[in-house]
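Database export, one record per block. Field names are fixed; values are copied verbatim from the stored entry.
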Amino acid sequence: MSRPSIVPIALTLDDRTGYTLWAPPWEEDGEEWQAFLGSTVDLPADINDDDPEAPGPMAVVHLFPSPAALAAFCRTATDHDLVDHPVWPVVSTLGAADLTPDEDHRFDLDGVYDVVAENPDRWAVDELAAVVDMVGRLAECCDTAGDDEDDEDDEDDDETGFEAVAELVAKPEVAALGLGIDAFLGRTGEESWARLGTAIDELWEDVLEELDEHLDWTGAGTVSGDAYPSAAEEAEARAAEPEDLDDLAEDDDEDDDAPVARPAAGSTAAAPAQAATAGVRAVHGSSRLTASPAAVAAAQEFWEAVGILPVEVVVPGGSGLTLRCYVEDRARFLGREGQVFVFPTPVDLARFCAGDEPHDLTEIASWPEVADTDTLPLPADQDRYDLTALTEVLAEVARGAGGLATHQALVQPAEGVLDLAEYAGLPRVQQLLGPAAALGRAVARGESEPTAPLAAEEAPALAAAWDDVVEDVGTCLVFRSDVTH
């Protein structure tokens, strides 16, 4: 289990976006807990009800129209579920920039119908899995049905105020989302995706209705309902961030010594965590590449269509961008004779692609489209491999910080490394990440038990093996700075 932490998240529902905080599962006094920035409120009686008795307390999650409004609340409020969390004193001092969610922690509940209406790809599956998982966590923390300590009827143990959520997450097709795109490939996978769409059509409106009862769109009484941006306004504001390629190149030059922003640390306490299904990423990239989420999403439409994706690699010797595709399920990179060409900025990579230097991707059928495009090669998060960040985390765990990261932290860097090793012919890397090696077994556990914590006693061997992996990978990367303008 990861150390106690608090993560900013954004929820889009009914065409408005709200910001709040989520405390991923942590252990305290022998129990596992998770929570959101919220509180318990007493609801007034409904005078139109035949039995106008007050329904009693209800758990709510406070939402705010902007990270700035969220930060302002955190600086002054003391009556909420996170105030006793181990790291709340740190979180309460953070500003809007530190409380702005990254792309992995934005959940568009309105967009679920659009996702299931399309053919599945890895982005659609990952997005849907994340949204459903977060809805389940919200329901779990807000569900107070059956919590009456005076109720001695064992039959009420399974009572829930979120019947539609419980019914949805019990569907085998929903459980299959955690397996990734492989669960929805082939004829059987297509049928499973169709059944998933049917389940969403039947249950999602009820799910949202149940959830919305527990969402406080007044920011604990600090804002009005019309202060929340619509989905279109939110997207426009985020897209307004600098995204021009030449601006990116200039920013890289100007910001060489700028500190790397880290997500906020902290945590919330509201309900025991009973069904956590996804680990919390504890490894943060040290990339200097900046681009708005809207720009990355727009670029991905082109790169996914041509089947050649931008990739970022960060090693001790530097960071840069290249391209990768798969030919008969084997990775192939922009390079020659096992050497991978890596470029410092999207601008430099795009200029190389427009040139006529020979390389191993020129024979790909869609390469002429790549060479002729004006679309920037901006990598998605899942195609960014910071090998140095994992080195730092393993070293810290080895020094005694057990639980700093889960085994899931190994999976993505290992995937990128294995592709590079396959293309470049790096047998030691393949051996160290093989099923017979300790590092390979740890990676495999990250796929089967993603939330299992990395233990301090196993970290020294893993760190040493990972250092060897990174050293070998560095030998196949050729950092190019010779592209003419």
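Remark 1: Residues 242-286 have pLDDT under 50 and may be disordered.
Remark 2: The chain has two domains: 7-237, 281-485.
End of record.
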